[in-house]
Structure prediction request, 227 residues.
Amino acid sequence: MFTGRIVARAARSAAPRVPIAATRTYAAAAAPQANVKPPVALFGVDGTYASALYTAAAKTSALDSTSKALENIGNNFKKDAKLASVLQAPTLSVEDKKAIVAELAKTIAAQDKDNIVKNFLQTLAENNRLGVLESVCEKFGVLMSAHRGEVELIVTSAAPLDNKVLSRLENVISKSQYVGQGKKLKVVPKVNPEIRGGLIVEIGDRTIDLSVAAKMARMNKLLKDQL
Prediction:
């Protein structure tokens, strides 16, 4: 497992680490591009970091490669359920963080030719923010979708949906008023066993909660109001 390699590497790391300068930039110097701004405003710590990385990648014309690198990192979270808790552990030492960055950098070496993402990971480690990495990957995906003119359709289910169900949802919603002319629909399936069954469909600022958990909550409220 990925976390196993991190723990093993951290144990082998004994050399002292040179502190990362606070003025670290995510990429090597490149010809500046004026007014490079994220296509949508994001909030929160994860949104701030995702926006900063987007701006750095855009200035060096590396948005696509950076996006692919973050997708690879995001896949590590999906494959290894323990990774998120490892990154959020308050007991991580400097050497632990160094090992984590090194292991993550290896998984994206093919896409991250200019070390934009590697430097970004080092900045997260220095600022004790590795715990928001999974969310940063998701927020960066939001920025890239907006950049590409995509409208995200997030479909949450208690268990993975088959491709036929996702295709039917995509066909129906792509013809609705929620997908503007010239926009592309991007289906993002998510799994959350806590909803117990049914679906939660999110598109834009609209959420349709058809989950079993929501129905039970409404039923419980109705019973309390009647008793």
The longest strand covers residues 150-157. The CA atoms of residues 10 and 96 lie 5 Å apart.
